[in-house]
Each structure stands twice: as C-alpha cells, then as structure tokens.
Sequence to fold (371 residues):
Amino acid sequence: MEKTENGKIEKNVDALYLHIPFCEKKCEYCDFCTFVNMSREYEKYTEALVKELKMYPEYEYDTVYFGGGTPSLLPVELLSYIMENMKYRKDGEITLELNPNDMSFEKLKELRKMGINRLSIGIQSFQDHVLKFIGRLHSGEDAIRVFRDARNAGFENISIDLMFGIPNQSLKDLKKDLKTILLLSPENISIYSLIWEEGTVFWSKLQKGILSEIDQDLEAEMYEEIIDFLQKNGYIHYEISNFSKKGMGGVHNLKYWRNKEFIGAGLSAATYYKGKRYSNVRSFSKYYRCIEENIFPVDDKSIETVDKEEEEKLKNMLGLRLIEEGTEYFEAEKVKKLLNEGLLERFDSGRRMRLTRKGIMLANNVFVEFI
Fold:
C-alpha cells in the first residue's frame, strides 16, 4: 500500500494493536507470526515499530493491545519506549499479553508503573500434564503465582486464557481448572477450543496419526460445562468465547466485534481502515525495508476493499458473536430459517436478534449463513 502525500493516513481511529512476534518457544498448536531465539532483534524491531506508529497521525488511542507472540519478553526499557512514543487516554484500556514463565514480580510492578493497566495471561490450563502436552513452558503453580503477583503489583483488570478440547484433557481436568479460576477471580476469561491449524506441529502429528481429535460430543460437553459453571458463579457470557464480571469485558476486543476501525502495527498485524482490511508483511527484512523507506509495511496481496454489502455481512456476523448485545434484526429468508430452527431469537421489541443457547452451541452453522 502506498503512503499518502505526507506519508500519513488522515482519519481518527481510537484502537491500536501492536504485534510483538517474539517467543521463548513455539507452542505446538500455534500458527501465529512468531519467532524464537530472536532477542538480537528486540531493539531494532522496537525502533521500527515506533517509526511505523509515527507514520499515522497522532491519534489518542482509547485502547491499546500488545499482542504476539509474547510481548512481555521485551525488556521494560523497550516497552517504555513504545509507551512514550504513542498518545493514549490515561483512563483508556492498555493491555499486555504475557506468559507465566517469563514474568517476575519486579517486572509486573514496572509494567503497571509505565501505564499498562490490563493483563491477558496465557495460562491455558492449570494441569501440568495438559500444559506439557501442548508445549507450554510454565506449570500450574507458575500460573497461580504470576496471577497473584499481578494483583499485588496493582493490576485490577486481568484476563486469563483457558483452552479446552485438547486430546489428553478430561472433563475432570477442565472442572479443576474452572474451580481454580473461581478462586483467582479474574475480571475476564477467554476460552479457546483447540484448532488444528495446518503447518503446526499438532497438524503434522494429526496427519501422521500420532494424535487424534477429541470426540465432538466431549468437546461440546466441555463448552457447556464452562458456560454453566461461569454463569452460575456470576460471570457474564458476553461473547462466544469470553466471560467477564459486570462491566469488565475487554473494551479493545469489543471494538473488533462491533466492527469498529482499528490500526495494527508490527509484523503481520491486521488493520481495518477506511473501507479496507489489510495485514502487514510477515518477514523482518521486508518490514524493515518498508519502514526505512517511510512506506506502510502492508502485504499488498492482503488488501481487501469492504463494500457496503460486505460491511453488512461482517457487522451481522461479528454482532452475533455478542451474546447479549446481538445485532439489528432484518428481514431475510436466512434469518427466518434460523429463527424457525431456534438458533436465533428476537429481542428489544423485535428490533434486534441474538443467538439462543442452541445457537451458541451451533454458532458456526449460524455464521456460515452470513458469509
């Protein structure tokens, strides 16, 4: 994508995603743009990231999300450098993803001090045999320690990731995880079923017959167990894969689901701006070259123009992910069909529609109707 005349984009956007592509180890199920043993790139990459940010107008961001990868691998000095070179609301939501194995109490205090006010901790499970199976470096004890350290460091808004549908994970394992979550009392819980992504170690093992997928009925039972347990204990199921305490849903991700525009900076980062969706390049050399030439580091093949029809499809599909909020009702045969099948229901005097419990369990069947 070419830069504008002054090398900048001219529209107000208040959500920023920053991709930090470094990891200590590549998880066996992960297909994100990440690299291991690349500490030599930390400083150069951070400088390039800040330069990319300065190619945009000086927006005051309402939400900033450091994702990856493992953003917490960056030294405090480099994270501070990024924070100092962007404008954000002091009462905004500034989230950093971290893993339990690479975090000290001292670093947590530094993160809070520099302005990061929300953590997303990649716990996935508290059961050591499950963590070992998926290739995580931390233990269940590490996860509990880091969560408590984060609280003591002053973080009042913490989200944790929980995985289910893992081949060696039992329903009993999941129930133990849920009880531990309740004891820790995070503000947000993001749940993920294991996805077999092509090109990952898990995918290779699946193709070779070393691993096999979990029984679909058991996976559905796990999902229902999560929903029932968390709702019974006061959490709001506000999005297909997210639960929160009242008023504590992830503001940044809510912007995605409400189809709001956002800027993404860094390797592979996605952006939605001015009717276009696109992603950045995935190689360091291409990224650095673009930044040096003051050109947006966009992968030209990824650019997609979103017309009004596509915009409506996205708005409806993303909106239906929001369990309580839903999306605007409109007359269509596919909508009538989904209502008759009990997958959707109307509310707000018929002005809006949302997934039913049955629809939540069969969400992909619903979403495909809007593609």
In short: The mean pLDDT is 93. DSSP finds 14 helices and 17 strands in the chain.
